[in-house]
Please model this.
Amino acid sequence: MLGGSYQFTEQFKAALYASDVEDVLKKQYVNANYVFPFDKDQSLSLDFNGYRTKLDDSYVRESGATGDDNKIWSLAATFVTGPHSFTLAHQRSTGDSNLGYAYGGYQKDQGRVGDGGNTIYLANSYWSDFNAEDERSWQLGYGLDFRAFGIPGLSYNVAYVRGDNITTSTSEGGTEREIFNQFKYVVQSGPAKDLSVKVRSSILRVSQKSSEYNVSGNELRVFVDYPINIF
Model:
């Protein structure tokens, strides 16, 4: 793997990475983020993320995939005004690979692609990654910072994502939708300063046409993070 990120200006930063998993796939990732500051309490940010994956011919034959190419990208616009943030995002997966965006796992002999099971940096990636073959998805999101109400460190985010045009080996035009909620609190002072607690829930519903790609469910997770400064 080779790549890096660079802060061009105070408002603009970008990243570019490329990897080669021998005899499996080659992948490139690009990110660009630009912030338009309007005044002290208002701004608009645009965030673009994209991946291009090319499967090796030997892996296509071995895995039974129907194609060797996938491109997936997202563009998110977030408007911040005071303690409120509003997000509109679009994400799209294209290419001829029936795997959609290929990721997950460490061991090739277990049917994995060998990239370490990493997550993907896309706007609509919550519980579902909305990354099926041919899938298009839209997001409406809202965030609230409780600092303005006298509770510094507490924040809330909610998002609704709907994906359609999903293609599987048996159907076309499948859909999925997710409602995501998260409360996060970061301790502001004392011995536990910077400890954070996140309570996250998702409700995912997948159409029958998309059942080969994903399944419906309800999820609740709790995260506790405590950073330790060594130096």
Q: What stands out?
A: The domain at 2-225 is CATH 2.40.160.10 (Porin).
